[in-house]
Design a protein that fits this description.
Largest interface: A-C, 51 and 52 residues
Shape of chain B: globular
Largest sheet of chain B: 6 strands, mixed
Oligomer: heterotrimer
Helix content of chain C: 55-70%
Structural class of chain B: alpha/beta
Number of helices of chain C: 13
Distance between the termini of chain B: 42 Å
Distance between the termini of chain C: 24 Å
Shape of chain C: globular
Chains: A mainly alpha, B alpha/beta, C mainly alpha
Structural class of chain C: mainly alpha
Strand content of chain C: 5-15%
Helix content of chain B: 25-40%
Chain lengths: 359, 502, 362
């Protein structure tokens, strides 16, 4: 799956131009369509607490899981040159574990929830280590290696909790999924910020970025410079595991129940898209987390826009596909080269010089 | 005489944004001639070849093929092939997953259906007539590199090429394989094929070529008959300056340091790729492993650095026993290693020059101790200046630098770690003569001024003699001799390498 | 360096290539698995009909697996095949229902519609991937979204085909009496093979011949083996890649029609996730995602292995969809490990296995 795009023009801030333009166009489109689209108001939720409401809030809120998983996906992509397509399925397992742990206690308090989250993290990291081992030690392409859990992960989730759709009714859980009383901003948004800060801190305090980029670009050379490629890849899978666990907990908390079939469904595809839309090279190497986060919000804004236009939920995919194609076409190296050439010709043409010979 | 000419290029010009890559260059190739195209990196050799093969479009000048009055228009490699110009590149450009026969015929027959039997029969004939040791139904990936190269040449020959371009064909072959290739080249010459031979190896030019065309800075220096141009003069013409630099070097080297401290010592060291051997180096000493490619010289230094899996042996660093089983251990023991294959093992192509320079030091500082940005910039700056690395900025991806400058960056990476013991495997391969001399000088300087111990490997014996004060000679993966002092001359080295066979 | 006498050695048997080895392994495992099922589960597995049913039920899967093998050999990937099946089935079902009681002509038109949808997807995706150099995963992912979305735009509710001639066609089966069995009441029940199964087997043979004996087929291998080399060898890389996607699109459309002949109803979840089964079938059959290596006969057996597991589990006490999925996952894992081990042991000394998994050398 290595494309010829590898290593071209994906460095620096330049890679953010296309996603930023796409985002701007989406915003403009919405403003043009309905000037009140972005209005934010203060409302009161069922529990009588004040919350911010509006499309913008709902976009940022509902993109949370995607944004979190996209960050982890970016790391795996960078160091392994491939994508993990089992994040949704492993997310379902994580959700099942969370529910199992939390419901195992008579009363749900903060300690229990933290224990649940920790258990969740441990399990997802273990599953991601399985993927990571296949990829790093056995040198199996990530997409193939993760196909295993992709195809049986949700069954494992089902098996953990039996036939039911377990419900969790607890103010703590709903505070995590929706809003904390007194704070009008939805909690999942804080989770994104938290994960983002955590990763930023990791990048600051460790060489994760340098190592994973080096391993992704040239594994052999990385080893000869003292880097352990296996450990580096496992590390990126481990970080992805934490991201998946947090996303899964948000997913469960948002609904107050677990449905192993629908939790985080198809999120792997959206996450890979987010990475690609963010201008990151799916073949590995240099990366920008900000690009992937931007990609996640673009995807969500697109979805919300379509909902706002009264497109049925099941049909959204078709329109989404078209917009995605437009974005990737605009970002394609061939189109870029053509546009640059055209721009140069226009400029030299207007300057009246002999631009033809150069072309 | 004029009828013998198969290719004339007149007044070829090619401009790139910012540089004039070719300026009014002439080139003439005669029938049945091996014509070496020489020049430093950036002299315009590869641009000229690319113009000829249609990869680049020329800005000016004319190309005539086979004495025809009509100008040849070459816009793509396919066009070039059609009029009889074939190229065999340094990297194998065949498909490893196909059979030899398929590689001979794919992409050039009009048939919609593959006639396997027919292709295999024809291939067997061609391979036979050229004496290439391969079987038509063999998967290409199962042939040695030399044979793969020869299959590529056979394909070109079978396409009735009049002009065969060999671009650095020998850089990954050992001596025997090079001889085989030369045999094939001479055979083709007899058949009247004109061969353009691009290489960095001076000896090979003199072994096989009839004429030499030298380019420098995109301009033609001249065309010479081989017998009329001594090697030293050729180098001078390529570099455009006197060879005083060479003379300087001659005086510096050759110092025995057997009295000083032993920095590194190995006994019975072996790895999955190398047989057990003993080795030691003194402080400030420059020694070298020599031998033919495949003699085990690279494998030995890889074992020292822990690049292959170490299987046994005792290692002492500064007199203390240490265990080196992976590169990181070696780095901790203050050993640096510049690998043989720069592209594959050395550079991190997409990363910036700065990241490439600080990489090894950063790894040594540890995973939890990243350097600050300003510190990185300072280090990078220092070494870009010290080694005169030509790069647009620190942020330029190393992949876009020239070969010589990439090598300097890798060298900078290891110098930055201030190793006690630095291993340089083929540091001067595939880079221009000027940079070569700079690197040789630097090695001697490091040993002299910083008392660094250096182990040097090169395919060019003269280079080895110039920098090393002790040579360890290897043959068939065993150490067969150690030369010092007055034994350090070409004749003795050759005799030791060749051993009892001669 | 081995210097061999090259004279007259054309006929010499070459060692198995990687693809042949992996294919042989998957054929052996299929035979072994089927034999084990016959021994331990008995019953249906002793009848030829069981084998035929595997083909009948999985005809569409076999066809899209061929489609996947083609693009994977070319070094690409196509995850839109399942979506295209879904869209084709829905579109054809709706179209048939507008045709009243039309005769064979309307069936022919439906067939052309199916191929047309597949072709359009193939051309669109192929153009984006080969001429605009966009990553195939992203393009075909968009293709998957588009086809699934269009399916529900056509109809959210299931659509049952009520076209008489077509229902007739669905019921048409090739009856082979001598492979049949005698029922308890003494009647001979012939073995039945559906048209779709026959089409699927034909497609496997055709694709095999195409890959082995046509210029296009060999060019696909070449671009998968080494794209840059293929270019210098004078192969039109872009066109070859484009055609490989067009072919896979066309085959997906055909698979859609075959699916409809097996189950004449459109539904938003038709062939859901079948692209992953098709990828799994290709991998089990010995196709490498890296490109250049693969064989469609192996793919056929890969698909049959998946089908047999499904059947075995359906007949065993563990008959539940989650056991199904877990078994699929386990099987895939087993094959992936097996391939990794096989290829690394054949490899040229490059370390692909940890030392503790390597057999000690004397």
């Amino acid at each position: 799956m290595r494309s010829s795009v590898k290593g071209r023009g994906t460095s620096g801030l330049g890679q953010l131009i296309i996603p930023l333009v796409a985002l701007a166009l989406l915003v403009l489109f919405n403003l043009f369509r309905d000037p009140s689209f972005f209005s934010i108001s203060m409302a009161t939720n069922n529990a009588g607490n004040p919350v911010l409401s509006g499309n913008l809030i709902s976009i940022i809120d509902s993109a949370s899981e995607l944004a979190i998983i996209s960050m982890g996906m970016t790391l795996v992509t960078a160091s392994c040159g491939g994508q993990d397509i089992s994040v949704g399925a492993v997310g379902a397992i994580a959700g099942a574990i969370f529910v199992k742990v939390v419901l195992g206690f008579a009363s749900i308090n903060v300690g229990v929830v933290i224990l649940g989250i920790l258990a969740c993290c441990v399990v997802t990291i273990l599953f991601k280590m399985f993927n990571g081992t296949l990829v790093a030690v056995f040198r199996i392409q990530p997409m193939i290696a993760t196909l295993i859990l992709y195809s049986c992960g949700r069954s494992i989730a089902y098996w953990i909790n039996g036939d039911a759709t377990p419900q969790i009714n607890s103010p703590i859980i709903s505070a995590m999924g929706m809003t904390i009383p007194g704070i009008p901003v939805p909690t999942p948004i804080f989770a994104v910020v938290l994960v983002g800060l955590l990763l930023a801190l990791i990048f600051r305090l460790t060489n994760t970025r340098l190592y994973s980029q080096t391993v992704g670009i040239n594994q052999g050379a990385a080893r000869l410079n003292g880097i352990n490629p296996v450990a580096t890849k496992l590390l990126s899978f481990g970080l992805l595991g934490i991201c998946v666990a947090i996303a899964a907990v948000i997913g469960v908390a948002r609904l107050g129940n677990l449905s192993h079939k629908t939790i985080l469904v198809d999120i792997e595809m959206d996450a890979i898209l987010a990475v690609a839309i963010g201008g990151n090279n799916l073949g590995g190497g240099r990366f920008r987390l900000s690009g992937s986060i931007l990609g996640a919000y673009i995807i969500q804004m697109l979805t919300t826009t379509l909902y706002a236009m009264n497109v049925a939920t099941v049909n959204v995919k078709a329109y989404k596909a078209i917009v995605i194609i437009v974005i990737v076409v605009a970002g394609s190296p061939v189109v870029k080269a053509r546009l640059t050439a055209l721009w140069n010709r226009l400029r030299s043409g207007s300057a009246g010089t002999a631009g033809k010979e150069v072309a | 005489m004029q009828n013998d000419v198969v290719l004339t290029m007149r007044g070829i010009c090619k401009q790139f944004p910012g540089t004039r890559a070719l300026n009014n260059v002439d080139f003439t190739l005669r029938k049945g001639e091996i014509h070496a195209l020489m020049g430093e990196n950036g002299a315009g050799k590869s641009t000229l070849i690319k113009v000829l093969t249609g990869v680049y479009e020329k800005d000016g000048g004319s190309i005539h093929v086979d004495g025809s009055e009509k100008e040849a228009h070459i816009r793509s490699p396919q066009d070039a092939q059609k009029i009889g110009i074939s190229t065999v590149y340094q990297e194998i450009t065949l498909c490893p997953n196909l059979t030899v026969a398929e590689n001979m015929f794919i992409g050039r027959t009009g048939d919609r259906i593959v006639h396997w039997k027919e292709y295999e029969k024809k291939t067997a004939e061609i391979l036979n007539s050229l004496g290439i040791p391969a079987r038509p139904r063999q998967e290409l990936s199962r042939c040695s590199l030399a044979v793969q190269q020869m299959v590529a040449i056979a394909r070109a020959v079978d396409m009735q090429c009049k002009v065969l371009i060999l671009d650095e064909p020998t850089s990954s072959l050992d001596e025997k394989e090079v001889e085989m290739l030369f045999g094939l080249m001479r055979d083709l010459k007899r058949r009247g094929v004109g061969i353009i031979f691009v290489t960095h190896f001076l000896e090979q030019v003199y072994a096989v070529s009839d004429r030499i065309t030298v380019l420098r800075n995109g301009e033609l220096v001249g065309e010479y008959v081989v017998q009329d141009l001594p090697q030293v003069e050729l180098v001078a013409k390529m570099m455009g300056k006197d060879l005083n630099d060479l003379a300087d070097l001659e005086e510096v080297g050759r110092k025995s340091l057997s009295g000083s401290e032993v920095v590194y010592q190995a006994q019975g060291l072996s790895s999955t790729e190398s047989r057990p051997f003993d080795f030691m180096i003194h402080q400030g000493e420059v020694n070298g492993f020599t031998g033919l490619l495949g003699s085990g010289r690279s494998e030995s230094v890889r074992a020292i650095f822990g690049a292959d899996r170490v299987t046994g042996g005792k290692v002492m660093v500064h007199g203390k026993p240490v265990r080196i089983s992976k590169p990181y251990d070696a780095m901790k023991a203050s050993i640096g290693y510049l690998p043989e294959d720069r592209k594959r093992d050395g550079i991190i192509a997409d990363l910036s020059v700065r990241d490439n320079i600080i990489l090894a030091l950063q790894v040594m500082k540890g995973f939890f101790h990243p350097m600050s940005r300003s510190q990185m910039e300072q280090f990078a700056d220092e070494y870009i200046k010290a080694l005169q690395i030509k790069t647009a900025s620190q942020d330029t991806p190393i992949g876009s630098l020239s070969g010589g400058n990439q090598q300097k960056v890798i060298l900078a990476r290891w110098l930055l770690t201030h190793p006690d013991f630095l291993i340089l495997d083929e540091p001067t391969r595939g880079i221009d003569v000027g940079t070569k001399l700079e690197i040789q000088k630097l090695v001697l300087q490091l040993a002299e001024e910083q008392h660094m111990s250096v182990t040097f490997i090169s395919s060019e014996i003269e280079e080895m003699l110039r920098v090393c004060s002790r040579l360890i000679v290897m043959r068939d993966r065993k150490i067969v001799g150690e030369l010092t002092g007055s034994d350090l001359n070409q004749a003795t080295v050759m005799k030791t390498i060749a051993g009892g066979e001669q | 360096m081995s210097v061999l006498k090259s004279s007259g050695s054309v006929r010499r048997r070459e060692p198995l290539t990687d693809a042949q080895l992996l294919m042989t392994i998957s054929i052996c495992i299929f035979v072994f698995m089927y034999a084990a099922a016959m021994l331990f589960l008995g019953g249906g597995f002793l009848k030829t009909q069981q084998l035929f049913d595997l083909l009948n039920d999985n005809a569409a899967l076999i066809i899209i697996s061929c489609a996947l093998t083609i693009v994977m050999i070319g070094g690409g990937i196509n995850i839109s095949v399942g979506g295209v099946i879904g869209l084709t089935v829905m579109a054809c079902a709706l179209f048939l229902n507008t045709q009243g009681d039309g005769g064979p002509l309307s069936i022919l038109l439906t067939f052309l519609l199916a191929l047309g949808i597949g072709l359009l997807f193939g051309i669109g995706q192929g153009a984006l991937i080969s001429y605009l150099e966009i990553q195939p995963f992203i393009v075909t992912l968009a293709g998957m979204f588009l086809s699934r979305g269009l399916t529900t735009i056509l109809s959210v509710n299931p659509v049952k085909v009520a076209h008489e001639s077509f229902t007739e066609l669905v019921k048409t089966k090739l009856q082979i009496p001598f492979l049949g069995y005698t029922a308890k009441n003494g009647n001979l029940i012939p073995a039945k093979l559906e048209i779709g199964a026959i089409v699927a087997v034909l497609i496997v043979l055709l694709v095999y011949l195409m890959l082995r004996y046509t210029r296009l087929g060999r060019n696909i291998y070449a671009i998968g083996g080494n794209q840059a080399s293929a270019l210098t060898l004078g192969i039109n890389v872009k066109r070859t890649r484009f055609l490989s996607y067009v072919l896979s699109g066309l085959l997906s459309g055909l698979a859609g029609f075959v699916f409809l002949m097996h189950k004449p109803a459109g539904n938003a979840s038709v062939a859901m996730r079948s692209e992953m089964d098709a990828i799994a079938a290709s991998i089990i059959g010995g196709t490498l995602l890296t490109g250049g290596v693969g064989n469609v006969i192996g793919t056929f057996f890969g698909a049959m292995i998946l089908a047999t597991i499904q059947k075995i589990i359906a007949l065993s006490p563990l008959n539940d969809s989650w056991w199904q999925e877990m078994a699929n996952g386990a099987m895939l894992g087993l094959f992936i490990m097996l391939q990794s081990v096989v290829l690394s042991r054949r490899g040229k000394g490059r370390l692909t296995l940890p030392s503790w998994l390597k057999f000690r050398k004397e």
